[in-house]
Design brief:
Blueprint lengths: L8 H14 L1 H11 L7 E4 L5 H8 L5 E5 L2 H8 L6 E4 L12 E6 L9 H10 L1 E13 L5 E3 L3 H14 L6 H11 L3 E7 L14 H11 L5 H16 L4 E3 L2 E7 L2
Amino acid sequence: MQDFRGLSRQVWHQRYLAQAEWTAHIRQYLFKKINPPCNERILEIGSGTSAVLQALHKEGFVSLSGIDLDQPSLSYAKTSGETFRLAQADGMCLPFVDGSFGITFCHFLLMWVRNPLQILEEMVRVTRNKGWVISLAEPDHHARIDYPPPLDELGYHQTQALGSQGVDVTMGRKLRSLFQQAGLVDVEVGMLGALWDDNVSHSPGETEWIMIQTDLADDLSAEKLLEYRNLDHHAYQNKTRILFIPTFYALGRPT
């Protein structure tokens, strides 16, 4: 499978699966709140390898669609054997008529796009009246907290690297305003919670460190990255590690 930023789609799929697990409780909270029928037509914008669609399918939803610009990711998604309706398309010009879906959502997407309001306006357009538009997760890397030192330096470097890639590292805090600008009503905005207890004793897995190394390969030496990784591991083992990236969700109704 073709590489993306030097990483295979299989690695990216593992990353997307991890993200879907991180946000599962928010997804389940929101879907319980709006209580859609299992045959509700649901569309994901920026569906990638369909990690979230797979989770929704396991939770009983049967009419699932996704669009993404990246054809290799869509091709990888089709290897799962699921019967999602997938299409290569631009979220700023969705190939659907008005009111086609009951729920339209995105997940870790708006931070990456050049015009998030236009994406949301298109999501609103293809969602029926009394349906729902949802952003399941948008981080605010600018407010990231890393402890103990010098792991705060690692957080700073990764935030800077994301910014240089075109990521809006303050997207999370903008969600409420963007949903209001898009004309949505009954808007609810919140933040994923955080918990550090004695059961959290393991540092991030291999896939997470592959992403960190990819982000920082041009800024830090392999030796420095290994030093940070060892410090991170020891901090988790010693139960002193705090890593918090405020991650926001939002939902609202088209008028």
